Every structure is written in structure tokens, then in C-alpha cells.
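Per your request, structure below.
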């Protein structure tokens, strides 16, 4: 068995390799990457998650990192590249600190390796203190004081729409060209607020859309993206198998949903096989099946049912009888679609056609029409009678190829997740809960000297808004600063590296009050990770790099503005210059940023504590 030793340089080398692949594509001004498979399939994308998941890397550390990035992306819908950039920046700083400490305290190579391992473990423990205590008690409360808060209430609908539009555009930025982003952001915003009649249920409805994603978005190829639109009702991805009349004039549609054959009263698992010995027996069997189907359809017609939606394929005899009774049929509908229709309308699916129907088995729609999307005919149910507090809607996503449709759809889904993170704002609830109880102290580990000055630090490093800068900006978009525990509030931060630069500032203030040198080193690692984001934005900007337009000068200017109380400053993604992010309109969910920081620190802890790679045949549970 070959046991492979690990050190920080191995993890850093792998992260730098991945960083070189995605770094130039970070931000709205980033470049795209061409992915080519062994079979000749070509994908052009700037989406970090798409690029990273397409890589087939054999090294266990690389697989671990990409798995962590994928998990974070699946939850937040964004920040795949930011995750890798921050992790690489933190590993660089770790390597410098470990090497500097080891060289200063050891002479031989063996002693140096042992001391490096000791420093790595101490840094890991320090990061745990930072993640569990420093961030919660000292840093994030200061950051939360300067976020954009928007109450999710009916009287704040316009403010909610405005912030929502900005978050969608920021999320889509860099994943497509400007016109495409503008078109799809408008579509998604219309979809969200047409879907939900009550903004207080916005989070529930968006979560439902994400969970039922495949039924919410319908991809149509060989069409220009400008043909994408929101359609009311529900589009069944099948054409009419039986159309008894001009269904474009069919109004007051009553339908049933079948997950069984029409002419049998038993389930498919209970079928019997019997032998036909003569033509008379064949005729008798056919007559029996005919009379069964006729009786069922006659019963359906007596209930004024004029549409059957079935997951099965009906026989020719069944279709003929449906035509005779004036009942239209849509067959072979995917089970996921009928389950979605059943969930929306409260219509119970029929699993045995011989059972008596109740009112719960019959659905209602105002209209049922055929619709042609691309070159394919579908069935469109309009005006569904639903039992939920949202209106049935679908987004038709059009693209020249299936790959482009997939990219557009993924972009829309990720933006939905960003909106969900914006509304969730769990850290706002935690912070407001502490404020409501007069900031009761949490249980801290008293053995660490690095957390002794939290209370004084929290008060000293909060920026005053007495100059009116922050208050004016936030009020202009309908947000509030005052804590209100009776109403749920969404929380957002400005883009352009604003969150990272602001958090970096608070860490710098905390370091001045900290006594523990290892906690200070851990804070410096996090600072380097945070600076990786504004560095990448400045590097990918279109401005010519020079001593007058360097990141150091921009960073110094931002630090001065933060000291002066201007907490809305950031870096312009196009010019690389310092600008007011409120005027630019770049907004990101607070929850996503905090989760990103926590996840990066957590994986950094794991990498610092790894010592060996042990190959095994298989992993068995205990």
C-alpha cells in the first residue's frame, strides 16, 4: 500500500491550476472558455460550475475541492468561481505564513517538516475559532449593520421588484451578452411576480419552482432567444392524440388525469394472460373490452368531462370511442408533468379507471388550445383552477441549439436560487434576535485569547451613518435600517467586491484588538481570501493596467472611502475604477456571501489538517 504524504503546497498547486482555468472568466467582463470533449462535443461557457464539473481530475484533492464547489453552487446558485478564487488566495497566504514561521524556528529539514505540520494544525484550530466565534460575534454583526434590508410585505412590492431585478441582472452578468441578460432578466422578473399573487409567499413559491424545475421551464431549440417568454397556465409536452373538434374554441374544460389504461379496472401489475382458442372467443374478448371502455367513457361524459390526460398510450379502440363520445385525449404525458398538474390544481390522479370519481378527481381549465413552439405541437391549458396561492406559469426558453437552451435554463435556475437566498436572509434573523434581547452574549470558548475584545470591537468598527450617505442610498430603493422583528426582511449587499472589502476592513480592525498571534494569522488568511474577489474584478476589467490604474491604488482609495463612512463603494467591472455600487445597481444576496465565506474557511480547515492520501479498494459503512 502506497501512502502518499500531503502538504500545503500540493493543495495550493491544484487550486492554482483550477484558478488559471476560470480566473479570466470571473465577473461581468470575464472571458469565456471553450470546452471540447473526446467525442467532439463543443461547449462555450463562462459559467464556473459548468467548466469545473466538465473537468475529469484524478487527484483526490482536486475531486474534493470540486465536490465542495458543486455543493456550494447547488445550494446558492452562484459563486463557483469566487469559491475557488478565495480558496486559492487563502492557501497562498497559508503557504507564506507556514514557510515563514518554519524557517524562523527550525534549522534542519526534518524539524522544518514537523514544525510545518504543527503550524498547519494550529492554523486549522484558529480558523475554527474564527468560523465559530469571531465571524459570528465580531465581524458579521458589523457587516449586517450596513446591508440593504427590504421587508417582504405588500406595501413594499415596488421596492421588492426593484431589488429583485438588480439581483437577477447581477447574477446573470458575465454568463451571456448584455442584450441576452436584459431579455432573460426581464422574463424571470415577470415570471416571479406574475406567479405569486401575495409577496409574503414569495419564498415558498420560488422554492417550489426550484424543486419542480423541469416542469417550470420548457426548452425549445432552433429558435432565437428573443422568442423566449412567459406563458400562463401549463403546457403539456404532447400533442392531441384525439381532437374531437376545434379545440381552440373549447371553453370550460373538465379533465381527468389517468395513470392507468382506460379499458381495465385493475392495475398493470394485476394483468392476466389467457389463450384465445377460437374466433368466437376473440370476438367475445374484444366485445368485453369494448363494453368496458364504452361504459367508462359514458360515465365520464355524464360528468361533462371533455379531456383525458393520460400517462399511458391508449389503444386505437379507446381513441375511437373517445371520438364517439366527444372527449379529447392527450396521451403519454410524462409522470412528472401530471404530478405537477395534480399538485397545482388539487386534482387527484386516477390509478384505476373503474373507480367512481369524486370532485377531487376532476380538474377545471378555462381553455385548452394547441400551441406550436418551434416545429412541435403541444397542448396548452389556460386558466387552470388551482388550490394554491400562485398562478400557474411556465417559461419558454428558446435557443439556437440544445446546448444554448441548457445554458439559458441553468442561468435562470441559478438566478432563482439567488432570489431565494436573498429572501431567506437567515443571518438577519439571528442578528435581529440578538438585538431584540439586547445583544445577549453567546457561549464562547474562554480558552482562546483571540475573542476577548469582541464587544468593544463591535462597537468601535461600526461605521456611523450620521453623514446621511448610507441612509439616503438605502431609503431611495425602499429599504430600511430599523430592526423590525414582526416582519420578515430580505437582505442584500452591493457587488463589485463591496462585501469582501467591507469585511476585510472589519477584520483589519479586529486584528488590532486581538492578542493571540495564531488567531491574527488566521484572520490574515481570511483577509487574503476576501481580497481575491476585488483583485479578480480589477484584473478582468478592460482598463489598461498601469501604475496609475493598479489594484493597489484602487484598494487604497476604497479604504479611504470606507474610513469616511461610504460603505457603498466598490470596483466597476468594466473600467476597474472605484465607483458607487448603489448608482451602478450591482446587488447580491447577503446570505450567499456569508455562506461562501463560511464554506471557504471550512474547506481550508480540512485541507490544513490533511496529512496522507491512503488508497483503498472500497469504503464500507460502520
Amino acid at each position: 500500500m502506497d501512502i502518499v504524504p500531503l502538504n500545503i503546497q500540493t493543495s495550493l498547486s491544484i487550486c492554482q491550476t483550477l484558478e488559471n482555468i476560470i480566473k479570466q472568466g470571473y465577473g461581468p467582463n470575464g472571458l469565456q472558455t471553450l470546452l471540447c470533449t473526446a467525442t467532439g462535443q463543443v461547449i462555450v461557457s463562462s459559467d464556473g460550475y459548468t467548466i469545473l464539473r466538465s473537468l475529469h481530475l484524478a487527484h483526490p484533492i482536486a475531486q474534493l475541492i470540486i465536490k465542495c464547489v458543486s455543493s456550494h453552487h447547488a445550494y446558492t446558485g452562484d459563486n463557483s468561481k469566487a469559491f475557488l478564487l478565495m480558496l486559492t488566495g487563502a492557501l497562498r497566504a497559508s503557504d507564506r505564513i507556514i514557510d515563514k514561521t518554519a524557517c524562523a524556528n527550525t534549522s534542519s529539514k526534518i524539524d522544518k517538516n514537523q514544525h510545518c505540520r504543527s503550524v498547519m494544525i494550529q492554523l486549522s484550530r484558529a480558523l475554527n475559532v474564527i468560523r465559530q466565534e469571531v465571524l459570528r460575534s465580531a465581524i458579521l454583526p458589523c457587516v449586517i449593520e450596513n446591508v440593504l434590508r427590504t421587508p417582504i410585505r405588500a406595501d413594499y412590492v415596488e421596492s421588492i421588484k426593484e431589488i429583485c431585478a438588480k439581483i437577477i441582472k447581477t447574477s446573470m452578468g458575465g454568463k451571456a451578452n448584455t442584450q441576452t441578460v436584459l431579455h432573460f432578466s426581464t422574463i424571470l422578473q415577470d415570471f416571479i411576480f406574475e406567479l405569486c399573487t401575495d409577496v409574503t409567499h414569495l419564498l415558498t413559491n420560488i422554492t417550489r419552482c426550484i424543486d419542480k424545475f423541469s416542469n417550470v421551464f420548457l426548452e425549445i431549440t432552433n429558435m432565437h432567444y428573443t422568442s423566449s417568454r412567459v406563458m400562463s397556465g401549463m403546457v403539456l409536452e404532447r400533442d392531441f392524440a384525439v381532437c374531437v373538434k376545434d379545440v381552440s374554441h373549447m371553453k370550460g374544460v373538465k379533465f381527468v388525469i389517468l395513470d392507468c389504461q382506460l379499458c381495465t379496472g385493475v392495475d398493470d401489475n394485476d394483468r392476466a394472460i389467457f389463450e384465445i382458442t377460437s374466433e368466437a372467443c376473440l370476438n367475445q374478448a374484444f366485445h368485453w373490452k369494448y363494453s368496458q371502455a364504452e361504459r367508462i367513457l359514458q360515465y365520464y361524459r355524464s360528468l361533462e368531462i371533455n379531456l383525458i390526460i393520460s400517462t399511458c398510450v391508449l389503444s386505437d379502440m379507446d381513441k375511437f370511442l373517445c371520438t364517439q363520445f366527444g372527449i379529447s385525449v392527450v396521451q403519454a404525458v410524462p409522470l412528472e408533468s401530471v404530478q405537477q398538474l395534480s399538485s397545482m390544481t388539487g386534482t387527484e390522479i386516477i390509478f384505476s379507471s373503474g373507480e367512481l370519481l369524486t370532485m377531487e378527481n376532476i380538474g377545471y381549465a378555462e381553455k385548452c388550445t394547441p400551441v406550436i413552439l418551434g416545429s412541435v405541437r403541444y397542448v396548452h391549458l389556460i386558466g387552470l383552477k388551482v388550490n394554491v396561492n400562485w398562478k400557474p406559469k411556465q417559461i419558454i426558453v428558446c435557443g439556437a441549439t440544445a446546448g444554448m437552451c441548457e445554458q439559458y435554463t441553468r442561468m435562470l435556475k441559478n438566478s432563482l436560487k439567488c432570489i431565494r437566498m436573498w429572501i431567506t436572509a437567515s443571518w438577519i434573523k439571528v442578528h435581529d434576535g440578538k438585538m431584540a434581547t439586547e445583544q445577549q452574549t453567546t457561549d464562547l470558548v474562554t480558552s482562546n485569547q483571540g475573542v476577548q475584545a469582541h464587544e468593544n470591537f463591535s462597537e468601535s468598527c461600526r461605521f456611523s451613518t450620521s453623514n446621511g450617505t448610507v441612509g439616503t442610498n438605502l431609503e431611495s430603493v425602499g429599504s430600511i435600517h430599523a430592526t423590525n422583528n414582526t416582519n420578515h426582511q430580505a437582505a442584500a449587499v452591493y457587488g463589485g467586491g463591496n462585501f469582501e472589502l467591507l469585511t476585510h476592513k472589519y477584520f483589519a480592525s479586529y486584528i488590532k484588538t486581538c492578542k493571540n498571534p495564531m488567531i491574527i494569522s488566521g484572520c490574515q488568511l481570511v483577509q487574503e481570501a476576501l481580497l481575491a474577489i476585488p483583485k479578480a474584478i480589477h484584473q478582468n476589467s478592460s482598463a489598461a493596467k498601469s501604475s496609475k490604474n493598479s489594484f493597489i491604488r484602487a484598494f487604497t482609495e476604497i479604504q479611504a472611502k470606507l474610513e469616511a463612512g461610504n460603505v457603498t463603494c466598490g470596483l466597476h467591472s468594466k473600467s476597474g475604477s472605484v465607483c458607487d455600487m448603489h448608482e451602478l445597481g450591482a446587488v447580491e444576496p447577503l446570505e450567499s456571501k456569508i455562506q461562501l465565506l463560511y464554506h471557504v474557511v471550512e474547506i481550508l480547515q480540512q485541507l490544513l489538517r490533511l496529512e496522507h492520501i491512503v488508497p483503498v479498494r472500497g469504503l464500507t459503512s460502520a
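The longest helix spans residues 109-144.

Regards,
D.
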